[in-house]
Design brief:
The protein is α/β, with parallel strands linked by helices. It contains eight helices and seven strands, in the order ααβαββαβαβαβααβ.
């Protein structure tokens, strides 16, 4: 199995709040070209709100959770049928300074191919951010807002953390940070405080995901 750097391992045990998507975007170079794969939930608007200087390309299979017209914010906004999703990523070989895949892999019919294609879409020294539900979520309690993996009926299967790491490494990505269960302290503490209400209402609240370690988060750099 490919080895994760000692730095990545140590950070995985003491997860810092800094390793969220906002911090990832903030660290990108000026004018970076960014490929957002699975860009629902108003991502074009949110990305450009954080980094108006980036060139943003978004890809998805439908308009999902859209409050702001993606075409007003994306430099390129692509909606393709599910059977063309992988091919649309493979076509962008070596084009981007950054690739973001936030809660996309668990919806994919061909997740292994998507991981490899995302890595290959990076230029040398390009960076990748992935977030997806931990495999442990299949045993979490069911709550509105999705705490158990199967609360969302569009989920296909939970991605395997070690397999994703292996695919990225094979495709030439060095793992900079990896947390199989991302539990940033401040958010987990908030989740602990709100847990009695969350449990009673059977609803995910701010901090619930961090308390349970719902997300797997991985950062990497293309060598």
């Amino acid at each position: 199995m490919p080895q994760i750097s000692e730095r990545a391992k140590s950070l995985g045990h003491v997860v810092m709040r800094a390793h969220n998507r906002r911090r990832f975007l903030a660290e990108l170079p000026t004018g970076a070209e960014v490929f957002d794969i699975g860009c629902g939930n108003d991502s074009p608007y949110l990305f450009k709100s954080i980094r108006p200087d980036i060139r943003y390309v978004g890809l998805d299979i439908a308009d999902y959770g859209v409050e702001h017209d993606p075409n007003d914010y994306a430099d390129q906004y692509l909606v393709v049928p599910p059977d063309r999703f992988l091919g649309a990523i493979e076509e962008r070989h070596g084009e981007f300074d950054a690739v973001v895949s936030s809660h996309n892999l668990e919806h994919c019919a061909e997740p292994d191919g998507v991981v490899t294609a995302m890595a290959r879409a990076l230029r040398p020294e390009g960076r990748i951010y992935l977030a997806f539900p931990s495999v442990n979520t299949v045993n979490f309690p069911s709550r509105e807002g999705t705490l158990n993996f199967f609360d969302d009926d569009t989920h296909v299967r939970p991605p395997d953390y070690h397999r994703v790491i292996g695919l990225l490494t094979t495709a030439g990505v060095k793992i900079d940070f990896a947390a199989e269960r991302f539990r940033p302290f401040n958010w987990a503490l908030l989740g602990l405080v709100s847990e009695p209400i969350s449990r009673t209402r059977k609803k995910v609240m701010r901090g619930t995901w961090a308390l349970y370690g719902f997300e797997t988060v991985i950062w990497g750099t293309r060598t």
